[in-house]
Amino acid sequence: MSNTEGHVRIFDTTLRDGEQAAGGNLNAAEKLQIARQLGRLGVDIIEAGFPAASPGDFACVETIAREVTESVIAGLARTKEEDIRACYGAVKDAPRHRIHTFIATSPIHMQYKLKMTPEEVLEEIRSAVSLARRLAEDVEFSAEDASRSELPFLIRAFKTAAEAGASTLNIPDTVGYSTPEEFHDFCRSVIEGVNAPREVVYSAHCHNDLGLAVANSLAAIRAGIRQIECTVNGLGERAGNASLEETVMALKTRSDRYGFFTKLDTTKLHSVSALVSRLSGVHIPPNKAVVGANAFAHQAGIHQHGVMTNPLTYEIMKPKDVGAPGTELVLGKHSGRHAFRSRIEYLGYTLSDEEIDTAFALFKKLCDSKKDVSDDDIAALIADEILLTSQENLYDLVRYSVKSGEGPALAVVSLRSGKGAVSDAATGNGPIDAAYRAVWRAIDMEPELLSFHIKATSDRSDALGETTVVLRSGGITAPGRGVSTDVIESAVKAFINGVNRLHVLASAKGVELSKRRKNYLE
Length: 522
Ligand code: KIV
Ligand code: ZN
Fold this sequence. Notes:
Structural class: alpha/beta
Strand content: 15-25%
Bound molecules: 3-methyl-2-oxobutanoic acid, zinc ion
Number of strands: 14
CATH architecture of the largest domain: Alpha-Beta Barrel
CATH class of the largest domain: Alpha Beta
Number of helices: 18
Largest sheet: 8 strands, parallel, barrel
């Protein structure tokens, strides 16, 4: 791989850095769906996770390495020997695999976080990269907090990594502090100072704390960077990472200015973005560039007139270039299995024959209560009924009833659990509040509700209600998702799904979840 050709590699870290976003704990089936989509989208490298973090993370990376063959599969590892060995163990079955190891190089991180001298950090880099290189051919080294590191030391760190065999050198703006001109000059000085062999690829990894992650990534490309690390929808810790779809479309739309290309099939951007949003529970603002619901909507009359006469008057990209839905196709009770299957594929899901049979049966059932079934209905149904059933549930909703109107609402819920059936009742401020309190009583636990969102899958009154929540208990956060034509049921299902995920994470981490605090039956 040479630095002078026009190909910019896209390294997607949605499943690793994106996953670190609050409540981003996706289950194994969800991560595999996303990885498959990323493979089909054509990303060059998929960072599938952090194998040493837990046995669950290891297993997820290993499954992705075995199943997704279109991309290089990378895992993250600290410079510790056990991390590097775990990472290799997880990625080794991928036909093309990478070990990505990192350590911080800024004075503040070395002194306060690592409590190591600069010389000790250089020694760590040397031994970690050498070990990784003995295990795998493709090794990436990242200097965490590079943009706040002292340039001469950073150059020594990268030279050490390159001499030990790293073939990708990554410059992260970990805290999102850089500005485009500054980051451009910084990357250029690193590249000139390290002066690595031509086959070494320089990479940038920008965080979005000042809203500059994409601009910084583009500036880095102009400086000689040929790999961009990014996430779908810009998902990631704090303000997130550079958004994959924005970076890729900026390079494509302004190829006149940059003269570089990526190998992505951009017509799949929309479906990947919708999948990641749905599964992570992190919603896309309507005005989000490239994939927001309004990204191609022209409200002002003068714009509409112009677009009708010639779309290029106001549109710099065509909706079809990013796979944005135009006239929405709807399926109904006369639609056959074949049409249903191709719709699922179009939406980016990869399901087994058995899963398609289950999904088709659910679709037919839905057609009994709804005349037209939209793409969003189908995607929500699969996310809820297929991907969630692949995890073991501690609780399942059996039934619920709510009485609301004047005065406080009263809810009764019945759940199935490993220990038998549990039922309880509670009053609350409206039906959902009452139902949630009844669940708290039934499970004797009261997770904090960090976020709560109900969305209709279409603008028709018989739309499915899709609820996403993020729960916290015992210091653990977990998202939850539920779908139903009955919005209260979708909210209760989302809550129970979040509780189930909290239990899975708590037992993996050996953490106690907090008990219920109040009575909630007034
Ligand atoms: O932001 C960062 O520095 C990282 C590294 C581990 C690459 O995510
Ligand atoms: Zn990062």
